[in-house]
Design goal:
475 residues, ibrinogen binding protein from staphylococcus aureus fold, alpha+beta
Length: 475
């Protein structure tokens, strides 16, 4: 459960934060923030967690991992309150809202940590209550930049005009420790609801075992498919036998009975009555070629799948061995990857990060196919030059975001530039989510047919291409 107001008061009394300087603000994930302080001859790391069922503020004695990518609120705090001094830290009545009064040069800021399980937030305002930013932007509550937040104006524990009832709470007993902050830190590491080691490990098992189960089922299907393709040599034998017995085949025959000179046995081969004798043999040779090519592709997929399965198993083992819940929480947000740079280095083609959007370009059929198979998902956007062979360009989806026109034009410029229509300086494009692509049956590697596609006419803009080159991810 989250901290109650008596526990918050005891924590703040122990911390005695007045006179400490904020040296760093680290946001591990969207609901975990730490303020690294120094003052009175010692350093402190103050954790603020907004996780439902485990909202709290206390000193933590465990490392606080950084996010792999800068998060908006942490960047805001760096620009406003880092290097500022805490002049006052108190809870507003019994309302579980902690207010820090921070002096940064001649400016004063107020940082409010509202530790309500159903509506937790961290809000920073100026002296007049004007909201400068919030950890969670909540428009319905008015908690957005430019809004107003001044909980001191409300009656303690409620809104103006409402009768306030003081709820009775007691300070809980925890395992022995040198201070209440140490006991709280140890307790939430093990039992902190969604951020406890037990819950996080169970989440890791659920996430990874589900993915591994689906991957194992896919591998089983691919192995069955490989077994079917493994009979490719028989198709070639049929073609050879037909070509050796052309004189025995009459127009309209549905079967050929002949000696199998490979095994010495009698064999019966199905024919296509509408085709001539030589065309019957070519038909089996064509099926043989397709089966051989298909087998190579399937074997490649099996090898990649087995490698991915091994990686998932090793990642799960590493997650289950992690003892810092904050580090484990961050790793789970990143699907177990320590840093996205690894994924960038393994991904084929060219990658561009533009205004937090990732654009990927496949430069040939092999890279197009690999990106489709392993690096994009159904809601990612696919673009391709119309009427010209060229690159597949993908815009990776961002949760809850619609691709802005500017990013669509960036990707469109890349699609035209990396196509045979580059010299025209402009061209038409297809674009559609990846889930609306279907592979061309028996087509070349990577060839897809779009459905529900839209059209876009793009003129190549030199300035845009130069800006994109500056955003290219080096491998």
């Amino acid at each position: 459960m989250s901290l109650n107001w008596k526990e918050i008061n005891l924590i703040l009394a122990e911390l005695d934060l007045g006179g400490y300087q904020i040296q760093k603000a680290v946001q591990s994930t969207y609901d975990v923030l730490s303020l690294q302080l120094y003052g009175k001859g010692r350093a402190k790391n103050i954790l603020i967690a907004l996780s439902p069922g485990a909202c709290r503020i206390h000193e933590t004695f465990r490392g606080t991992p950084k996010s792999d990518r800068p998060l908006r609120f942490a960047e805001f705090l760096k620009s406003r309150i880092v290097n500022g001094w805490i002049e006052e830290a108190e809870q507003l009545g019994d309302n579980r809202i902690v207010r820090l009064l921070i002096r940064q040069g001649k400016n004063y800021f107020r940082l409010y940590a509202r530790l309500w399980s159903n509506a937790a937030n961290v809000v920073v305002t100026d002296e007049d209550g004007l909201i400068l930013d919030a950890m969670r932007r909540l428009p319905k509550r008015g908690e957005v930049t430019g809004g107003h937040y001044a909980p001191e104006a409300e009656t303690p524990g409620g809104k103006p005009g409402r009768e306030h009832v003081v709820r009775e709470y007691e300070i809980r007993e925890f395992e022995p420790g040198a201070s209440f902050n140490e006991r709280i830190d140890a307790f939430y590491a093990e039992h902190g609801g969604a951020l406890s080691l037990e819950a996080l490990r169970e989440q890791a098992r659920r996430n990874f075992e589900g993915r591994m189960g689906r991957l194992k089922a896919s591998l089983e299907h691919l192995r069955e498919k490989a077994g079917d393709f493994g009979a490719a040599d028989r198709l070639k034998e049929y073609g050879d036998i037909i070509m050796a017995n052309l004189g025995a085949i009459k127009a309209g025959d549905s079967w050929l009975e002949a000696d199998n000179f490979y095994t010495g046995e009698k064999i019966r081969i199905k024919l296509e009555p509408r085709k001539g004798p030589a065309a019957q043999g070519e038909l089996y040779y064509e099926q043989y070629r397709k089966a051989k090519n298909g087998l190579a592709d399937v074997q490649e997929e099996i090898a990649a799948g087995e490698k991915e399965l091994k990686t998932l198993e090793e990642t799960l083992d590493r997650l289950l061995e992690e003892t810092n819940p904050l580090a484990l929480h961050r790793l789970l947000k990143n699907r177990g990857e320590k840093a996205p740079a690894k994924a960038d280095s393994k991904r084929p083609g060219l990658s561009f990060r533009r205004k937090d959007w990732l654009i990927i370009v496949g430069r040939d059929a092999s890279e197009n196919d690999e990106l489709l198979r392993r690096h994009v998902k159904g809601n990612d956007l696919w673009l391709h030059a119309r009427d010209y062979p060229g690159s597949y360009v993908f815009i990776k989806q961002r949760s809850g975001k619609t691709v802005p026109l500017d990013i669509l034009l960036d990707a469109g410029n890349l699609a035209i530039f990396y196509s045979k229509g580059r010299n025209n300086g402009e061209g038409d494009l297809f674009y559609t989510p990846v889930k609306f692509l279907r592979r061309a049956k028996n087509g070349p590697k990577g060839l897809v047919i779009p459905t529900q596609e839209k059209n876009l006419h793009v003129k190549v803009e030199e300035f845009r291409l130069k800006e994109l080159e500056q955003c290219r991810i080096e491998k």
